[in-house]
Specification:
Number of domains: 4
Structural class: alpha+beta
Shape: globular
Largest sheet: 8 strands, mixed
Number of helices: 8
Distance between the termini: 41 Å
Strand content: 25-35%
Length: 560
């Protein structure tokens, strides 16, 4: 996934316009097929329908995913001007272990139209059309989007591949629908036109993007449109201090984001910021404690845990260096040696969020920075060092110390990712993080309020919440509940909704419903089991009701 400003792109092949907005949608989005005969969207290879996608060829299933993503965005956005997205499958950058999944940007940008809300800023084409009420560049489509044709082939994230279902049950594949939702958002305006590595504005004329008006550096106290080029260069790598400060995101961020992961340590400052892994046991407020031990696998870089651990780690916390093999291999080796938790230390500057999937890993795992890892190893060298992997009682994952939602600003700068994504520390995972996560759904989470900030959707000025509570009443009963609970909600109007249970760390536990509900009262039972059919433990859970116009969250205490 990447966000980059696209120049005008000339594609060859048949032109297919597919209308992708349903009844009641606020915007019409057209998908324009730029692939040639027999390739990409036109691939005739037979395929069985999967996950609600009825296509019977690979090409049809790909197009159905694009139409589905367009329909979801069309139901959320507010524009009288049709949005034209030209799309194709092409080879993109790959290695055997990593791949660019997509690349999307505006075909042109506009500034200083008298109808624009903000003067002196570049607008992505589709948003410019919405602001003006007419197509201000009718000779060109609005957005260019490409997706990796070679994904899963040898040398291109070998062994993976695209998943074409609508149900987000991708297993070890890559969820194309989630990637398309992400990429289309970049083309709609979720990116800057400013060069983050040089700090230079796009020009001529040299102007900031509307994005830059809300991109705020908490160290300097300046927005990007108030900085010099040098200040923007420094800000783009100012990890944990570059934030979004639009009113709508400011309100929604603290409501959506969960407790942050941390490692409590017996030396100053008392705790280390961490990111929970996408696999393994969920962190809790109470945490798991043990003596921290740097692992030894006896081969090559002995601290990377890429081979079975020498000796026993029974009851101890494994400290592991990043590199060489996957995160799940490292942690599984530590678990097999008896470790009760794992801390993976980054091998470059910046935060680390260990990814991967392995249902057999049952211990918690977090990632920490290279600098914090060096300090932890120094403490271990001085004697027994007891640490605790836990959820912070005071911090939220993805928020700065001042309560703003963090933007992705790693050091060194990462072209195509830095500045134009949410930070990887956010929990639950957000659609617009720089890498795909397996727990993404149709929910566009904080992208909705961000699009309100930049003008896509009407802002709610009298009530900061852009989804007024008057639309829905959500309660859980009994609360606390013993083993089972009922979730009640009362809708003001018919709406397609998902009802999902999350743990205190923001991890999805179970989807209770995904359907269209009529206006009026509804009741859905939860039997206290997770999505794998296992009873959940006693604790605090979040029940979240989400739709294009509704979002409500209720805390539920479950006692087993």
């Amino acid at each position: 996934m990447s966000a980059r400003l696209a120049v005008r792109w000339l594609g060859a092949g048949a032109l297919l316009v597919a209308l992708a907005s349903g009844a009641g949608a606020a915007a019409t989005i057209n998908i324009i097929n730029m692939d040639g005969a027999g390739e990409g969207f036109n691939d005739p290879t037979p395929a069985a329908p999967v996950g609600g996608n009825p296509g019977t060829t690979i090409g049809q299933q790909r197009m159905n995913c694009a139409l589905r993503a367009a329909q979801i965005w069309g139901a959320i956005l507010d524009s009288n001007v049709p949005i034209n997205i030209q799309a194709a499958f092409n080879p993109l950058t790959c290695t055997a272990t990593a791949a660019a999944l997509g690349s999307t940007g505006p075909i042109s940008v506009q500034a200083n139209n008298p109808a624009f809300e903000f003067q002196g800023f570049w607008y992505h084409q589709a948003l410019a059309n919405k602001e003006a009420g007419v197509d201000v560049d009718p000779a060109n489509n609005d957005i260019n989007s490409q997706f990796n044709l070679n994904l899963g082939q040898t040398g291109c994230l070998t062994g993976s591949g695209w998943y074409y279902g609508f149900d987000h049950n991708e297993g070890g594949l890559i969820d194309l629908l989630a990637v398309m939702l992400h990429e289309f958002a970049h083309g709609l305006g979720f990116s800057t036109t400013t060069n983050g590595s040089s700090g230079a504005y796009l020009g001529p004329p040299a102007l900031p993007a509307v994005w830059d008006r809300f991109l705020f550096d908490e160290t300097t106290g300046l927005h990007w449109n108030q900085m010099t080029a040098g200040q923007r260069m420094a800000s783009a790598i100012n990890t944990t201090h570059l934030v979004w400060d639009g009113q709508q995101v400011n309100f929604k961020g603290p409501l959506l984001l969960a407790h942050a992961a941390e490692v409590a340590v017996p030396y100053a400052p008392g705790s280390l910021d961490a990111n929970a892994a996408a696999f393994g046991a969920a962190l809790t407020l109470g945490g798991v404690s043990g003596n921290a031990v740097v692992v030894n696998d006896g081969t090559g870089t002995t601290s990377d845990a890429c081979e079975p651990i020498v000796g026993s780690l029974a009851g101890e916390m494994a400290v592991i260096d990043r590199g060489t093999c996957t995160f799940v291999i490292k942690v599984k080796n530590a678990q097999n040696a008896g470790a009760i938790g794992a801390i993976i230390v980054n091998n470059v500057a910046g935060a680390l969020a260990p990814g991967g999937t392995d249902a057999t890993i049952t211990i918690p795992c977090v990632g920490i920075t290279q600098a914090d890892g060096a300090n932890l190893k120094a403490a271990i060298a001085g004697g027994p060092t007891s640490v605790t992997l836990r959820l912070s009682p005071t911090k939220q994952a993805g928020l700065s110390a001042n309560g703003h939602v963090l933007m992705y600003a790693p050091n060194p700068f990462q072209g195509g990712s830095s500045v134009s994504h949410w930070d990887v520390s956010a929990t639950p995972n957000l659609l617009m993080e720089p890498a795909i996560n397996s727990d993404l759904t149709d929910d566009v989470d904080l992208t909705d309020p961000l699009f309100r900030d930049i003008g896509w959707i009407p802002r709610v000025l009298s009530v900061p919440d852009p989804t007024p509570a008057a639309r829905v009443a959500l309660t859980s009963w009994p609360n606390p509940a013993h083993r089972t609970a009922s979730v009640h909600f009362d809708l003001a109007a018919e709406e397609a909704l998902t009802l999902t249970v999350f743990d205190a760390a923001g991890r999805e536990i179970r989807s209770l419903a995904r359907d269209s509900f009529s206006a009026g009262p509804h009741e859905i039972a939860w039997d206290g089991f997770d999505r794998d059919g296992r009873p959940v433990s006693t604790g605090i859970y979040l029940v979240r009701l989400k739709g294009p116009r509704t979002q409500a969250t209720q805390h539920l205490v479950l006692l087993q």
